[in-house]
Amino acid sequence: MPDNLITIVEESEDVDSTIISRVRLEILWALSDLGEDGATARQLKAGLNLSDGVLYANLKKLVEMGYLRSEKVTLEGKELELYAITPEGLAEWQRVRGWLCKLLGCAGDTCGR
Amino acid sequence: MDDRSKVIACFREAGFRMNKDRFEHRLIAQKLVYLLKLKGVEFAYPFRLYVRGPYSPAFAREYYQHADEFSRCETESTLSPAEADSVAELTALFDKIPSLLEIGATYGYLAYEMHRPPQQAYRIVRRMKSFYSNEQIVRGVNRAKQYLFVPTEEEKAALDAELGEWQRAGIRSMRH
Question: pTM for the full model?
C-alpha cells in the first residue's frame, strides 16, 4: 500500500467520477491540448476509433456537464460539428489526471503528456 | 526573424490572409506551417500528432493572441529564396485545399517524422482520416510525397540511369 493512501482518498472526493469512463477520458485527453480550436466530431470518431453511437452519447453528456462546447463550422462547403474543451473541462481533466497519476504511482504530480 | 513574422511572410507569399474566426483558415494555417517545417523552413513551434493531424498549440496561441497581424498579413520580414520556393511549391501542389493539407500533413508526420514505412503510414492515414474519400486520400498522400520526397545521391544516380536511357531512346527515335 503506498504512503499516499490518505491523499488519494481525500482527493477522490474532488474528482467528478462521471468522467471516469474510457471514452470520456479519451475525449477529454484528445481535446485538452487543442484549446479553442477543438476537433470535429468526425475527427474524434476516426482518430479515437469510436462508433457514432458511443461518440455522440458521450459528447452530449460532456456538453451537458459543461466540460465541452459545440458549434457548427464549415469545411469545403460541408457543415460539421466542432467540439472544444471549456475552462471547466480543462480544470476537471487536470484534476482527474493528477489524481489518476497518484493512484497509478506515476512520477511527479502528473504524467508528462 | 521571429517565428511569427516568418509565418506571416510565408502566408503573404502564399496569398493567404488568415481570419482566425474561420475554422477552415485555422486548419489551413496549421498544416501550411507544419508542411513548410517538414520541408526545412525553420520554425521553433513544436508539432505533435492529434486527432486533427499534426498540430501546434504554441502556434495556435500566436494566431489567437495576434489575430490582427495575421489578418493584415503585413510584415517587414522577407523570406530567403529557398523559403519562398518552398512556399510557392506548397501552394502550387495543395492549392490551400484544407482536406488535401490535412491528409498530406498527417502522412508527412507519419512517414517523414515518425519514419513509418510508406505503406504503414498510408494505412494509418486511411484509418485516421476515414471521413475523406479514397480519392482524396490518394491525392493528399501523393502531393505530400511529391512535396517532401528528396532523393538521396544513390537514388538520383539510379533515376538518372533509368531516365537517361529513355531520354537517349527518345532522341534516337526523333532522328528517324
Answer: 0.87
